[in-house]
Every structure is written in C-alpha cells, then in structure tokens.
Amino acid sequence: MTLTRLPLLLTCLLLLFGCAQHAKKSSRKDTTAAVTPATPGAPAADTTARPFSLKSTNGDSVRIADGKVFWKGKPVWRIPDAGDILADSPYNKLIEKADTVLLFVDMFDGPEEDKMDVVRLSPGKPTLLMKTIASKILDRNGRLVFGGFHLTEVPPSYPDSIYYNGSEFYAIVGDTVVRDTAVERLEDIKENGVYLSHIAGGKDTVLPNPRRKRRKVS
Q1: Which of 30, 148, 174, 202 could be joined to 133 by an S-S link, Cβ 3.0–4.6 Å?
Q2: CA 217, 158, 166: angle at the middle one, nearest 5?
Q3: Residues linked to residue 214 through DSSP beta bridges, in sequence order
Q4: Does residue 108 carry a pLDDT above 50?
C-alpha cells in the first residue's frame, strides 16, 4: 500500500465508524421510546366489579354497574372505590321501607375486615348512613340487626390474653339505623367475657382470653 492512499483509507474507516455509532444510538433511542415508564402514584387499572342486581322481598330492585346505583331505572348514587365492591357477597342486601329502600353493599377493605356501605335511597336525596363492619342482617325477635367485631391483636407480652374487643351492632328502625347497645352488651360478654364499651379506654384493656384453655398447675 502506498503512502498516498493511506489518508483515503483512514477517511473511509472513520466514516464507517461514525455510521455504526449513529445506527447504534438510533436503535437504542427507538427501543426506549417504545417503553412507557410507570408514573409514581399513578392509579392502577380499573377493577370495577361486574354489574349485579338486588331485589327486596317486596319486589323493589336496584342495579349496580360501574360504581353507579340504578333505582327505578335512573342512576341515583355513585359508590366511591367501585373496584372494591364484592359483587358476589351474601351481605349485599336491599330492604324496602315504604317509599324508601336501604341498600347494603359489601366492600373489600384488606387487610382489615371488609366494610359495608349502608345507603338510604328515597325519592329525595340519597344518603350514605354509615360505613360499618360487613355482616349478615339477622332477625332478632322481629328486629333486624347487623354488626360484628373489628379485628384485634394479641398483646405481644401476653400470648394468653386479648385486648378488649368491643362490638358494633345496629338495628333498622323505620327508614334509618340506630346503635343497638343491648345487642352489643350481649355479644361483648360472649366475645370478651365482660362488657366494657361504656367505659372510656375500655378497648385498651388486656383480658384473659376466654377461648383459650389454661393448663392446670400441679
């Protein structure tokens, strides 16, 4: 190879190297552009429960779809966090009272116990009466009652003991619900062995676990 051709050869090699680097950058740019990075705090995909209907014993009905409650063919209420609706729950219920209906919708609330939205639907403005522990509605001597207990922890230093776990029970009276302290007293004694809900700070009381058999000390 003559010296006169050396500069020409070097120029060609530099051009080829530059083209290769450009192609590599272009390829990398196209690859990253095809991937959309996740945005911190972005909402998850919609997990709205499947549509379902509820009927009262008197023939009234509601339909729940996309978080909307349809009553008498019209959307009358929107349930927040529609993706948490448990469409197949036996706790979903519709109770008719004259020209008003009470709607009970079970909502997932892990890791805590599931909650239940209680909504009053009426010709006027619908009202969210409460959000409480999901439970069955039971007939107690002709009085419709619902409620239960929250999840509680075992005191770390007392494995044979429990924190006092007060219940929440409500009775359906007319077209509304009221606290039923008589049922709470009975259920609290069954659960805890004592009733302390009427005492300030009662929930922080550590008690012997009434369900745990203690070994006899010989």
Answers
A1: 148
A2: 115
A3: none
A4: yes
Q: Where are the domains of the chain?
A: 48-133, 135-211
List residues bridging with 169 in a β-sheet.
Answer: 147
What is the pLDDT at residue 44?
36
Burial 31-45 (b: 16+ CB within 10 A, else e): eeeeeeeeeeeeeee
The string of DSSP letters for 160-206 reads: TEEE---EEEEEEETTEEEE-HHHHHHHHHHHHSS--TTSTTGGG-E
Mean pLDDT of 39-56: 61
- On the question of pLDDT at 25 being above 50, the answer is no
pLDDT bucket at 36, cuts 50 / 70 / 90: very low
Burial class, 164, CB count within 10 angstroms (exposed 0-12 / middle 13-18 / buried 19+): buried
Average pLDDT, the chain: 78
The tokens for 188 are 């609290």
CA 192 to CA 164: how far, in whole Å? 6
Rounded to the nearest angstrom, the gap between the alpha carbon of residue 111 and the centroid of all alpha carbons in its chain is 9
CA–CA dist 61, 16 (Å, integer): 76
